[in-house]
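Journal club side-thread
Mid-discussion, someone asked how the predicted structure for our own chain would compare to the paper's figures. Pasting it here so we can look after the session.
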Amino acid sequence: MSKNLSSIERVAELIYDKKNVSKQKRDGSVSESKESDEEEQNVKKQKKKKLPKKLTKYQKFVQEEHPKLKDEYGNEDIFKVIGNRWRNSPDNPKNI
């Protein structure tokens, strides 16, 4: 019976050791995931620091024309008028 007990104890130790090894692996992966989270945050910060895109010629044209026409036209009509002016504008690359 003592042989059985010692073999059972040995099996229990092996199982306990396996649990500890898997727990250590999980703990290691947790620290790796923390590192990856930090890397993701650094990447997000870098993306935020990017300079804004340059405005297109059309966007610049709208910025110039909108304040001039704001008092005369409603919101829907103002963009129709700006669009018509853009079609005939020398700033429009299609008119070159």
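Post-session note: The chain has a mean pLDDT of 77.
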